[in-house]
């Protein structure tokens, strides 16, 4: 447990226990490993700066900071993460038979996700990557459950539109290849 007057040891212990999941979320929100690490660092700096306001477990507070920073236009302008789309690490324990296809699909999905407005992207990451309920997502983003449902619906519909040209393996059918830099 982290107290209001954190020691370096308490912060290290907190990050050792929860850091991997938090950095995965940051990577998904930012679109790449390096940008996710930058996002996580900015969120941790803000968390430490405001630690006296936090009561109890700081993880929820840190997640809200991550989502808000990822959606913040000024932070995105200062970062170059939109131009960098390194491949995300494989989350599954056993790699699929064709690792190249899985990496290509993940890369294409991240590119599609980054085309969504920040609020829709944050909702989709929380709902489907973090597997939060609508109520938990609404609480984390400080909005209504209806706003979460609406943003998720619009975001999923837009992703369907953007992936309509894909074949069953996640490859584009040709006419849209220029959009993905292929």
Describe this structure as you would to a colleague.
With 182 residues, this protein is mainly alpha-helical. Helices cover 62% and strands 0% of the residues. The chain has eight helices and no strands. It starts with 7 loop residues before the first helix and ends in a 20-residue tail after the last helix. The model is unreliable at 80-93 and 174-182 (pLDDT under 50).
Keywords:
182 residues; disordered C terminus; 8 helices; mainly alpha
Q: Brief overview, please?
A:
By secondary structure, the protein is mainly α.
Radius of gyration: 17 Å
Number of helices: 8
Helix content: 55-70%
- Which descriptor suits the 3D outline? globular
What share of the residues does DSSP label as strand, in percent? Answer: under 5%
Overall pLDDT level:
76
Span between termini: 48 Å
Largest sheet: none
Q: Helices and strands, in N-to-C order?
A: HHHHHHHH
Poorly predicted sequence stretches spanning 5 or more consecutive residues? 80-93, 174-182
Beta-strand segment tally: 0
The secondary-structure class comes to mainly alpha
Topology:
Blueprint: H1 8-30, H2 33-49, H3 59-71, H4 73-78, H5 99-114, H6 118-129, H7 134-141, H8 145-162
Helix pairs in contact: 1-2, 1-3, 2-3, 6-8, 7-8
